[in-house]
Design a protein that fits this description.
Layout lengths: L1 H18 L10 E2 L3 E5 L3 E3 L2 E2 L6 E6 L5 E3 L4 E4 L3 E10 L6 E11 L47 E19 L3 E13 L3 E5 L8 E8 L8 E13 L4 E12 L5 E9 L12 E8 L2 E8 L23 E17 L3 E13 L3 E5 L6 E8 L4 E13 L4 E12 L3 E9 L13 E6 L3 E7 L3
Parallel strand pairs: 2-9
Antiparallel strand pairs: 1-4, 3-7, 5-8, 6-7, 8-9, 10-11, 10-18, 11-12, 11-13, 12-14, 13-14, 14-15, 15-16, 16-17, 17-18, 19-20, 19-27, 20-21, 20-22, 21-23, 22-23, 23-24, 24-25, 26-27
Length: about 450
Amino acid sequence: MLKRVLSIALTVVLLAGSIGYPAEAAKKAKCSFTKVNLEVGQKKQIKIKNKVKKAKYTFASSKKSVAKVTQKGVIKAVSEGKAKITVKEVVKKKKAKKIGTVKVTVSLGVKNDVPTAEPVTMAPVPTAPAVLPTNYPPVITPEPTEEPSPDPYTTHVMSIYIKENANKVYTVNGSTCYVTMQYFHAEIDGDYFTGTTQTGSTGGEGSVVIKDYKGNYNNGEKQYCARYIVEGTDDTGAPCKMFIEDNGLEYEDGTIITKPIIITNSKSLAWLGSADLSGRVSEYDDGKVIDIMWNESNTTPVTPAPVVRPDNTKNYNRELFVFNVSVGGSYAVESSYANSSMIHFNVESNCANFRGTGVDADWGFSDTRKQFTGQVQSLSARYILEGTDVNGDPCMIYVENNGIDDNGMVTEPTIITDSPEYAWIETAPLHGTVSWGAKLNIHMWTTSN
């Protein structure tokens, strides 16, 4: 009987082991700590527990003037005060999810008190009267060191994660400037907006043009100008679109600072059109991230730059090029204070001085239009062609056709080319007009001398 009972018990144990129990639910990712006290200059890394495979984790500081944080989650104490580090989890094709907040308190630090020894009273020693000099050397007062101004852009608006398309990057090495046109995909995350580059004929991509000027041309600046349209949801959960033009400069230390222009149809985010914004570019994984920051202390609305009208004081009577444009689809963003659109096109040329086609034949070039309240409509079309010059030699031409559409299109173009035959064009006065035929024809002119 005892053997039978033991046999039944053993069977039950074995069955229980074979049947098993539900697996423990996967643990959620979380920060290794939620509060930290630091002294100015100290660093502390936020580590993520229970990381999700193939997920990315982003870190954003509410006050970079107090505490900065790197893409790897390293906090650096900058100045006395308090800040919050928001940590989010980004999984492909899913909305970024907040996994935690780290409260940072930064202090100036406490100086160590050095104990002072009790004074010892010594017997007075007679001394001879001191002989004082009659001529004193001049006292040099050092100039006070100017304190660096604190960064006023302390409120984080959104982070734009840029993934460059390695198959769509084009360059032109001109005599005055080295031009790079790079296409990219963007994903945006933040407390005010979440979204991605708008899908369409360009495959959901934007483009940035980098102009690296040589020598003293344009003061040797390295200029950036990115343009794209994104779609997503605003801080109220409403679907919306944004047109973003981000103009920036790269400084000698490699820092890139931008000044974004934002046009959105979100009623909740209309204030972005006149807010004092600044972009900070840094490396992120296999791409870049642009943190858009807001100077909340500046309550004066930022007004749009005046539209620059093309020059009409010269006699532009010498035609250089004719570019033939096939117009494709367009995407627009309309707001209460401005309208914008991006008109996609292909381009070719078969004129006497140049024969060639656009390097992107997939409707990737854009004519960008902007019109703010009280202004005429501005236009800016950017494209690169590859072909042969008047001598039959291979060459590349970059065209940036800036102008206005005020009952007719007139432009003042910039042309950069690697053709020695046309190097002079880069610094020549230029003028653009249009005509219609089977295609839209862009005529480029200069003066006779």
